[in-house]
């Protein structure tokens, strides 16, 4: 039976309270005003008082509007025709295409049994040296780009979407500015990647509740593709907007805030999403790359702090490039032994020398005199930043490794690199290789 | 028939239920919907309404749905067959759930914690007529390498007479192996296993003993400076990326205990996957058998239902207490207790309790203290001694130890292993901060020796801080030497390579031997001729000790290697004493006090000048440290210099 009620007792923020019976927790309802209808989700039941979160926002809702309960939970469209499509945070088409209601999947399904997860073992190549060479992205990994507003994180995300060797890209946009959304859409379309992409985009102009639903829709769809054997890369931006939306709803529901106004379950809420990253036994995988903008560039802010405890590493995007310090892929050691014999050693040596360059910079800033060794480090650091760290650089891992050797050869004598003689014999560029 | 109630409200994982017959706090109930039975626990009773937390998603539950109360507190099954299992927080075996339900954890799917059909060869230890009390041994079955004691149920009240007991043979958990009669004449059949509520500590021992035996973890910095005791408690707070989980994984593999229980509480599933895929193939360093045979994993990862997260730590400690009753040494590692505290906070918020600091409930501290108090070293009624040691990681919000969970935990534990971002950023693992950490237990090194080393490290830290401002030139040679020695000690002893087969775990004797030599090096005053020479000497010595660290302890070269390093050090000290007679060989300690006072006195003023004034022997014309990184790096690959060349150098 479908319950309909004709009076809304309370409207506060995006939450309404109505009187109804026989409705289940988490189910959906349709709030109908004259000329408009909005989806709403039950977020609390107390006797016959039903609290609903209105996905379309409550602006203009009347206490006389009617609410019809749909007896189903939030679902995401899922059909083979999904690729290339763009939806909003309710799962409605944003691209003017047809609605895909013939087949749907429930959102926020049960967690994967840990004993059925696979150990991560495959690298995802992105053709970005700072990722592939220094902090490899691994299939089934969950990792976040830590950055601040104003940094080119969308450009980075778009490049990863275009260059990563994933079969399906699922994009979840939360609180995107509309022109950012257009940028992402146009970039993917012009590069011909749209055909393997499906997007769920909430823009800043949309009701805040949809911001919470967008990643859930994206992840539900990604999970289905993975169960069907596809290797899926999910891109979520910006998780800080998602957390702010959670905060807004929690405050409206009069929940006791825990830290800077965020709800006490922020960790669990984030984990429930990030833990959807998985490699299935005998099927595909979900890899999750998100963007977390650091409010005030503060790593101890609850959002990046909780994220850091959940994700398997982070990429620091600062000053327009991925910083080698602070960036960390916790799973890289699972894959970078099998790429090329020199990968790990070169990675360590180059980072160690780059750390030396940073010390030299400090020394110079303090006014201490520089030695010839410092001069070498300065030359190395400059080359490293220009040839490898620059975000515009795109090359295969092998090319990046070769380039790394040439940069070293251009700056140092072989012994100065601290690399073992065996590898030096195999990989140190000969004279005719020319200068890097 | 079980008493029933009906749902009146749903709020996240919390449901409110109207009931008629009496209900108990922490009693288990099932919410019924669409043929599903969702397990829940009574957390609060007000009038005719009870608040229950549901251990599953509450999606679809609605007011009016029936709730079935069981009368039993949330309990686990205790008996043979626990070892080697992987459970969720409610003791559901995950492998069996996967067989039945596939890839996902289906709602409302439960499986018995012990396999009822597995048969065990039981050997009785009593005859009819014997008198038993709760916890007394009835017989035993072999479980892996242990003789698993079959005990009288822990809830057996008063003395009972054994009326019947079976002959040796093979029995399942469903079989009755004995019948006992109480003083009231009531007969009770006993089986190989029984149930026990997880929130009630098992206290069937004669006396609690002080935790005085060290627990060897194989982690040098812990075993030597910040020891853990069998039956003690320790906590390990640290910001993300500081290596808490790696350290716990290492401890779980190498700790010298009988049984390790890993409670993966609200953390990444991927890390549990590593453990549960690795342990069946990894040999137990003590016995060579598969490590999984001495391990129980209780895992409630971050995406699993949050209410069961709270239960998971109690499930784990109850299993530990059960094995302690057999006189075994049990280590419980909980990662992370902050997630457990967050589960409490979430529940408290939904119950609309008045919040304490950072919205944690006011009972956070007492709850944490009560949990850690379940650890302990006890003498059992049969005279044997069993221990439960509890180590918990803490994930402090923002990496600050001032937050409520860290502070509440610090009050409850006997050792504090502070992991620092500074050390992990410098790739100094394990990233345990030697200045901030402490332990109240007696370890393998005498406390006063520990304290002496700690003070030297503190002094060296002050010097390093000062050096950042004044540069090496502004540091006296003696201070510079202490700085080098502390760095050397850090590199060769405090740091440890978790991924090297030998260096990952250091046996007790080896830690003692190495610590003895290194303490001598730290405490012997050595004023070098120049900074360069001192640096070269320690770079060389460091490489020698690092190489020595990788030699297996059983190798004959190992003891000789240590003696050689000691000889090298002593000849260097004597050479220094000969070439510069004014420099004496003595314990630094007496001198240290005065230099500490000096440091304190001069801190408010310009530190550089004071240092220069106090150390007239400071050589202002020393070369800068510019080549330091180069020297470090290239030396790694150079062949070791022949010994006699060095001796010649020393004797010149």
Task: Describe the SSE topology.
The complex is a heterodimer of chains A (436) and B (652).
Chain A: E1 4-5, E2 8-12, E3 15-19, E4 27-33, E5 36-46, E6 49-54, E7 66-73, E8 75-77, E9 86-87, E10 104-106, E11 123-124, H1 129-132, E12 137-138, E13 142-147, H2 153-163, E14 168-176, H3 178-190, E15 197-203, H4 208-227, E16 231-237, H5 239-252, E17 257-259, E18 262-263, H6 266-274, E19 278-279, E20 285-293, H7 302-310, E21 313-318, E22 321-329, H8 343-366, H9 372-389, H10 397-411, H11 421-427
Parallel strand pairs in A: 9-15, 13-20, 13-21, 14-15, 14-16, 16-20
Antiparallel strand pairs in A: 1-7, 2-3, 3-6, 4-5, 4-7, 5-6, 8-10, 11-12, 17-18, 19-20, 21-22
Chain B: E1 4-11, E2 14-19, E3 27-33, E4 36-46, E5 49-54, E6 66-73, E7 75-78, E8 86-87, H1 94-101, E9 119-124, E10 131-132, E11 137-143, E12 146-151, E13 160-165, E14 169-172, E15 178-182, E16 187-190, E17 194-197, E18 205-209, E19 214-215, H2 220-224, E20 228-229, E21 233-237, H3 244-254, E22 259-265, H4 269-278, E23 295-300, H5 306-324, E24 329-335, H6 337-350, H7 364-372, E25 376-380, E26 385-394, H8 404-412, E27 415-416, H9 421-425, E28 438-439, H10 447-470, H11 477-494, H12 508-523, H13 531-549, H14 556-579, H15 588-602, H16 607-614, H17 628-637, H18 643-651
Parallel strand pairs in B: 8-23, 21-26, 21-27, 22-23, 22-24, 24-26
Antiparallel strand pairs in B: 1-2, 1-6, 2-5, 3-4, 3-6, 4-5, 7-17, 9-11, 9-14, 10-13, 11-12, 13-15, 15-16, 18-25, 19-20, 25-26, 27-28
Helix pairs in contact in B: 5-6, 7-8, 10-11, 10-15, 11-12, 11-13, 13-14, 13-17
């Amino acid at each position: 039976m479908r319950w309909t009620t004709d009076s809304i007792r309370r409207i506060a923020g995006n939450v309404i309270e109505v009187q109804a019976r026989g409705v289940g927790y988490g189910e959906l309802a349709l709030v109908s005003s004259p000329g408009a209808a909005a989806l709403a989700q039950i977020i609390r039941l107390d006797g016959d008082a039903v609290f609903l979160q209105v996905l379309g926002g409550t602006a203009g809702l009347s206490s006389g509007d009617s609410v019809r309960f749909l007896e189903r939970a939030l679902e995401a469209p899922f059909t083979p025709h999904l690729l290339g499509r763009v939806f909003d945070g309710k799962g409605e088409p944003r691209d003017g295409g047809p609605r895909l209601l013939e087949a749907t999947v429930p959102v926020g399904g049960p967690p994967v049994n840990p004993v059925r997860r696979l150990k991560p073992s495959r690298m995802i190549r992105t053709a970005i040296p700072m990722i592939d060479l220094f902090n490899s992205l691994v299939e089934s990994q969950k990792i976040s780009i830590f950055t601040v507003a104003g940094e080119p994180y969308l450009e980075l995300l778009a490049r990863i979407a275009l260059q990563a060797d994933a079969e399906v890209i699922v994009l979840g946009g939360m609180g995107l500015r509309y022109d950012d959304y257009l940028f992402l859409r146009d970039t993917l379309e012009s590069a011909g990647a749209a055909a393997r992409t499906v997007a769920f985009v909430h823009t800043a102009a949309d009701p805040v509740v949809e911001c919470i639903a967008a990643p859930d829709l994206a992840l539900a769809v990604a999970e289905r593709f993975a169960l069907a054997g596809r290797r899926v890369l999910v891109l979520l931006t910006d998780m800080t907007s998602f957390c702010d939306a959670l905060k807004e709803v929690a405050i409206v529901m009069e929940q006791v805030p825990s830290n800077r106004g965020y709800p006490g379950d922020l960790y669990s809420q984030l984990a429930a999403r990030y833990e959807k990253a998985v490699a299935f036994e005998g099927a595909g995988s979900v890899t999750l790359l998100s963007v977390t903008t650091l409010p005030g560039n503060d790593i101890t802010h609850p959002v990046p702090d909780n994220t850091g405890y959940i994700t398997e590493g982070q990429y620091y995007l600062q000053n327009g490039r991925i910083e080698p310090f602070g960036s960390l892929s916790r799973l890289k050691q699972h894959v970078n032994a099998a790429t090329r014999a020199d990968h790990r050693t070169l990675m360590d040596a180059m980072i160690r020398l780059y750390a030396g360059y940073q010390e030299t910079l400090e020394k110079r800033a303090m006014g201490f005199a520089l030695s010839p060794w410092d001069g070498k480090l300065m030359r190395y650091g400059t080359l490293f930043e220009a040839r490898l760290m620059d975000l515009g650089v795109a090359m295969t891992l092998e090319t990046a490794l070769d380039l790394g050797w040439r940069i070293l050869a251009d700056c140092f004598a072989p012994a100065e690199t601290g690399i073992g003689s065996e590898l030096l014999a195999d990989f140190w560029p000969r004279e005719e290789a020319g200068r890097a | 028939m079980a008493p029933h109630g009906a749902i009146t409200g749903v709020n996240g994982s919390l449901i409110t239920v109207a009931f008629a017959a009496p209900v108990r706090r922490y009693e288990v109930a099932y919410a019924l919907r669409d043929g599903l039975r969702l397990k829940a626990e009574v957390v609060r009773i007000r009038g005719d309404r009870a608040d229950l937390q549901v251990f599953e998603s509450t999606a679809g539950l609605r007011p009016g749905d029936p709730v079935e109360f069981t009368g039993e507190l949330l309990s686990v099954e205790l008996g043979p067959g626990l070892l080697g299992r992987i459970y969720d927080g409610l003791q559901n075996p995950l492998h069996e759930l996967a067989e039945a339900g596939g890839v996902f954890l289906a709602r409302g799917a439960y499986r018995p914690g012990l396999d009822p059909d597995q048969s065990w060869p039981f050997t009785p230890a009593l005859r009819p007529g014997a008198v038993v009390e709760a916890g007394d041994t009835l017989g035993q079955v072999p479980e892996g390498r242990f003789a698993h004691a079959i005990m009288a149920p822990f809830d057996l009240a008063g003395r009972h007479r054994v009326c019947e007991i079976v002959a040796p043979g093979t029995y399942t958990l469903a079989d009755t192996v004995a019948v006992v009669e109480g003083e009231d004449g009531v007969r009770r059949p006993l089986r190989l296993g029984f149930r026990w509520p997880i929130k009630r500590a098992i206290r069937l021992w004669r006396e609690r003993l002080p935790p005085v035996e060290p627990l060897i973890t194989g982690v040098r910095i812990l075993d030597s400076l910040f020891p853990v005791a069998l039956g003690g408690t320790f906590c390990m707070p640290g910001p993300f990326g500081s290596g808490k989980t790696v350290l716990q994984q290492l401890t779980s593999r190498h700790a010298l205990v009988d049984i390790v229980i890993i409670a993966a509480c609200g953390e990444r599933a991927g890390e549990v996957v590593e453990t549960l895929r690795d342990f069946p193939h990894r040999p137990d360093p003590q016995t060579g058998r598969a490590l999984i045979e001495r391990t129980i994993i209780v895992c409630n990862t971050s995406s699993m239902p949050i209410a069961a997260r709270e239960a998971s730590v109690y499930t784990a400690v109850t299993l530990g207490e059960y094995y302690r009753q057999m006189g075994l040494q049990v280590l419980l590692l909980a990662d992370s207790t902050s997630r457990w505290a967050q589960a409490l906070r979430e529940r408290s918020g939904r119950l609309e309790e008045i919040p304490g600091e950072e919205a944690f409930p006011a009972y956070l501290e007492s709850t944490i203290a009560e949990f850690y108090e379940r650890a302990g070293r006890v003498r059992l009624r049969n005279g044997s001694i069993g221990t439960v040691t509890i180590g918990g990681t803490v994930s402090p919000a923002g990496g600050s130890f001032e937050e409520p969970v860290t502070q509440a935990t610090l009050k409850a534990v006997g050792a504090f292993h502070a992991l620092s971002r500074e050390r992990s950023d410098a790739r100094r693992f394990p990233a345990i901060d030697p200045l901030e950490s402490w332990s109240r237990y007696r370890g393998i090194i005498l406390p006063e020796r520990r304290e002496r080393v700690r003070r030297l490290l503190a002094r060296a830290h002050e010097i390093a801080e000062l050096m950042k401002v004044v540069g090496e030139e502004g540091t006296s040679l003696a201070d510079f030497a202490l700085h080098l020695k502390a760095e050397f000690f850090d590199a060769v002893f405090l740091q440890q390579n978790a991924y090297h087969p030998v260096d990952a775990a250091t046996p007790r004797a080896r830690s003692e031997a190495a610590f003895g030599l290194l303490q001598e090096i730290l405490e012997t005053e050595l004023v070098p001729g120049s900074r360069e020479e001192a640096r070269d000497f320690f770079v060389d010595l460091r490489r020698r000790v690092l190489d020595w660290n990788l030699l297996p302890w059983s190798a004959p070269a190992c003891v000789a290697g240590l003696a050689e390093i000691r000889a090298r050090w002593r000849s260097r000290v004597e050479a220094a004493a000969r070439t510069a007679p004014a420099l004496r060989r003595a314990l630094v300690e007496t001198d240290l006090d005065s230099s500490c006072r000096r440091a304190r006195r001069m801190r408010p003023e310009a530190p550089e000048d004071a240092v220069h004034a106090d150390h007239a022997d400071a050589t202002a014309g020393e070369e800068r440290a510019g080549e330091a990184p180069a020297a470090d790096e290239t030396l790694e690959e150079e062949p070791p210099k022949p010994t006699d060349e060095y001796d010649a150098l020393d004797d010149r």
